[in-house]
Queue: 3 jobs
Job 1
Amino acid sequence: MKRREFVMVAALVVAGCAAPMAAGGQAFRSERITVVTEGSGPDVVLVHGLGSSRDVWRETVAAVPGYRYHLVQMNGFGGTAVGGNTSGLVAAPVAEEIARYISEARLQRPAIIGHSMGGHIAMSLAARHPGAVSKVMVVDMVPFMAPFFGGPTATLESVRPVADQIRDRMTASDAAARRSTTEATIATMIRSEGRRPEAVRHSLESDQSMSARAMHELITTDLRPELSSIKVPLTVLYVRSPAAPITDEQMDAFYRASFAAVPQARLARIPDAYHFIMWDAPERFAQEVRSFLGG
């Protein structure tokens, strides 16, 4: 192969990694998400959480080679333009866009891993598009968040006023208050102090209105009635937050009850880690991902 031809081929490979191709050879375009690919092998879709970035998967991708990772970035988070996420719901339409990406890119039932809000998205996608994915990993997320905000007897109706208040407070917060709240919140989400500044930056660079609307949506959405539609293997990794006023055993019971509709679900509580398990316990997390993908 001549040098010029080699350079052209290399350029096409790089372009293909940066802009995944949809059916018909057209680059996938969306107003809600962007996707980049890394590596080669079986397909794995990675979805980050609220106010975060696909950069949270950086170490995981490096630690678990042998797969073609499709790293989703939700528009409006982590310093990206809001695009089509300017108003209304966020998680539900993003899940539909990821399903469209899987279809248009002609992925053959990839695995999907979602952290936090990304876990919510992964569950809803798998439930609403049963043939789209081959297996699901949820990282520290439950199908119904209301009990965290309204107590064990919370319902959608009882928690809605609380969710409204949280949304309105997040929307109206000035820069100083937002930074203070974000730093305090991230301190309860990441045990490794050295990793906290990056998460704080991602959150502060995220669109304020979008973050507030997404939080409201997560609190007021109950995916439990849909979980029985998930027939593929499901792995759920979770922690007991230092701020949680319950014991490890009570958290275990809560997760078992939350996923009771999915008998094939494998639940594993990760000790010595907070919400960002991939950063607080990278070796254990990589081990869990290898087992999940290789199983």
Job 2
Amino acid sequence: MTTANPDRISRSFTIEGTAEILGGMKKQAEARGFTIMCDEGPPMGENTAPSPMTYFAVSILF
């Protein structure tokens, strides 16, 4: 049987958002009042916005 640790702090949060495909590999998402766009570089996309992997990598830096 596991007992709760009184020194451990637990938090949870919820983020709601929407996303849509704009054509090709370009996508747009909205969350918390912000609009985020992503795209892939050639030959798959048009390189009009950062790729999803770029957003992921930068999020680790934060």
Job 3
Amino acid sequence: MKKKKSDKKGSSPYRWALTAFLMAVAVSAVLTLASESMLDGAGMAVALLILLVFIALGILFDILGVAVTAADPKPFHSMAAHKVKGARQALMLLRHADRVSSICNDVVGDICGIVSGATGAVIVVRLQSGLGLNAILASVGVTALISGLTIGGKALGKPFAMNRSTRVVYLAGRVLYLFRRR
């Protein structure tokens, strides 16, 4: 039996894995650098705000990753035919739903989880030194809070993404359209 040739150049799963790896390294470096530079010398309120931003970012990208896999492309074909801004970008997201979902859920989502954990560690050290809290109790409390907010937020976001997938993908298409225009 002959091996079936791929329609697209470079569509090997190994090539995608390498691309995802390189993307993860780059995004992780950028987000970690941003987090570290913002946390350096920041107070507890700013550290908590940074933590919440990374948790929210992970939840938002999880919503987008789910919505892209659940959305129907038909409304976007109609919108693109009527030259609605962002419709072509939304269709591009849907055509590559497997990769978009992987990037949103795995690359960005996992990195946000890791950076949230690192930010949580900084908060634990500050709680321990500033308030004299027991390191183990502070660590357990902060870790539990990060886990609860992340998992609870994603649990709320998944049905939202599935029920409003067209709206979510359209908004993502509009954002991509705005970035493309600049």
